[in-house]
What we know:
2 domains, alpha/beta, 5 strands
Amino acid sequence: MYNVYFSSENLDTYLKELAKEFRKLNGKAMPAEIILIGGASILANYGFRDMTYDIDAVISASSAMKDAINRVGDKFNLPNGWLNSDFMKTKSFSSKLAQYSNYYKTFSNVLTVRTISAEYLIAMKLMSGRPYKHDLSDVSGILMEHQKRNAPLSFEQIQNAIINLYGSMDEVPNHSLNYLKSALNTENLEQFIIDSKKSEQDAKVKLVHFEEEYTGVLNEGNLHQILNDLSNKQKNLKHDVLSFSRAAQKSFAEKAAELPQHSNKNKNDIEH
């Protein structure tokens, strides 16, 4: 069981080691490029996320990069796929990412690292929109960081980024766009982020329990509907409990009212 995470403190260390291993295997004649996205890109650009458990990236390199990744993984006891490009199979990927990436650092004169930031990173998070991950709380986290930098992001900027990456707004989930509008309009973004993280954690717990009870049923196609059903079921249960409690209290009060009232004299007789 691996207990490894990547943070803003160790991210550069692993990238530096990767560059060294790649240079040993490949030489310096054919440089490589990596574009960090997701949690790793947030770690490189912002301070509101503490960690991520893998590094998602667009990797442009010779086949030696795969061996270099494995060597660094073995050296530091990192999980398989600690650096991967699996996200390229998801709907948040765009072939235009490189066009809107920013230079980060170069390691060992052979590995150039770039990142996605600001409205383009938000666009990717909105497109993914997973309610059980950090996608939406990351959106509000980025918005807050830019507010603190006196460079707030507008809906129009983010909308343009979505269109630049994906051609239109059509594929962005409605719940993601509704979340964005709420985040942009809230008067207390810090509390909004706290509430978002709690909601994401609650959603994760619900889905884990559902998967344990109904193995193999959950998939990307039905996930949102199942979460909605589970949330509605929980709300209905809470409503039933409150209704029962109120009915019980009312019944108790009615029965108490029916009891004979004792005079003070009788009360004194009883007490003595």
